[in-house]
Amino acid sequence: MSDQQQNQLWGGRFSESTDAFVQEFTASVGFDRRMYRQDIQGSQAHATMLAEAGVLTDDERDAIVQGLDEIRAEIEAGEFQWSVALEDVHMNIEARLTDKIGITGKKLHTGRSRNDQVATDIRLWLRDEIALIDGEMTRLMTGLLDLAEREAATIMPGFTHLQTAQPVTFGHHLLAWFEMLKRDRERLRDCRKRVNRMPLGAAALAGTTYPIIRERTCELLGFDGVCENSLDAVSDRDFAIEFCALTALCVTHLSRISEELVLWTSAQFNFIDLPDRFCTGSSIMPQKKNPDVPELVRGKTGRVNGHLIALLTLMKSQPLAYNKDNQEDKEPLYDAVDTLAGCLRAFADMIPALEPNREVMREAARRGFATATDLADYLVRKGIAFRDSHEIVGKAVAHGVDQKKDLSDMSLSELRQFSDQIDEDVFEVLTLEGSVSARNHIGGTAPDQVRAAVARGRDAISG
Ligand code: ARG
């Protein structure tokens, strides 16, 4: 890299060239080149606006727009020479433009600074990524609804404290996952509103003396509005922090789901099978089939939580307006985006392929005295106070544990030892089907409620 190239864009007041290590250390082109498309998009809109404002001629605008189109093609063909001496994506592209079209290239930066340029690029980039992530989230949510519909009447034990609590339907359990993701998608869409504001025009920090038309650039770039204050526009990265926060929550949800999948695929639970294509084997233990995808997703939580903390810490002590600290916003944000997109994609592919072992699930619910609450509720309907019925059923369960018998396996006379209020009709409530069907209200586990919730979920998804 020649010194001449190094000083081309800001070297006017410098009398010696940058230390070679400092140049490497302060450069961001190694990672921010990822935003080359948005950088070009922003520059083309800026040049178009400058021509309309009379700051550039139409010919100058055309040369800039076309030159940038060619640069985009060079980058995509792998022919572009990225230079660390030119520090970042912005100056690399601008310098190349000047190489190509001469002095007109040097006019592109009129009324603009890299400070509002980079803030604009990140927002455009994140907006594009949000659209892709939204699509993957929706695909996963659709898969959950389809599976929940299929498994609306499949019985499994519901857990509290990871101990068998009450029977639920597998469809109902899947819809709990769906609700988590529905809120994640709401948060994503809400975040997009604040991402989609345009900093361009703030220039370095105070605005510019040129007669720029921010509304026009805003329209060209599809932003919902401009950032209202130039100092705030170039300095705050709260939108990136917000994105990392919703990412941390979403990956936390995926991690909780993963934990259940890992448990359920174990030989001890054996509730579900994961197709081989989502698993790997062990190099030493021939019998192993490991649920790597959910395990890895569970593990990814750590890094996205880290990115959230990194960005919060990055921001916390920065005085207005732009500081070089902000260059550190990109790598955590990029990785948060990649991690979330990857986890969602893996899940969207995997969820429709889950194979429930319905008999095993059902048997697990049967063995765990899962209908004990139903018996207590039955006695309440017969006029016994709930605390007393709780005590009665507790004794019946103790007897069952002793005799290795579920409540539904006991005879009527056996059950009547604990309360003479128990009659023949008790067996209707002691069955697993009776138990889940009785919870027949909105948000309950009854198969009919699951089907109704799936229908509502489909409406919510298309919204
Ligand atoms: N590479 C820089 C960043 O990512 C671009 C803005 C630099 N602005 C400046 N005044 N040095 O934040």
What does it look like?
With 463 residues, the chain is mainly α. It has 3 domains: 3-110, Fumarase C, Chain B, domain 1 (Orthogonal Bundle); 115-362, Fumarase C, Chain A, domain 2; 370-462, Orthogonal Bundle (Ribonucleotide Reductase Protein R1, domain 1), CATH 1.10.40. The protein has helices spanning 3-7, 20-26, 29-32, 36-52, 58-76, 89-101, 114-150, 170-195, 214-221, 230-235, 238-265, 292-316, 330-350, 358-367, 372-381, 386-403, 412-416, 426-430, 432-438, 447-462; strands at 155-160, 163-169, 197-198, 225-226, 272-273, 355-356. The strands form 3 sheets. Strands 1-2 form a two-stranded antiparallel ribbon. Strand 1 (155-160) and strand 2 (163-169) form a beta hairpin. Helix 5 packs across helix 6, helix 11 (238-265) runs antiparallel to helix 12 and helix 15 crosses helix 16 (386-403). The longest helix is centred in the first third of the chain and has 37 residues, at 114-150. The protein is elongated and about 100 Å long. Mean pLDDT is 96; it is low at 1-5.
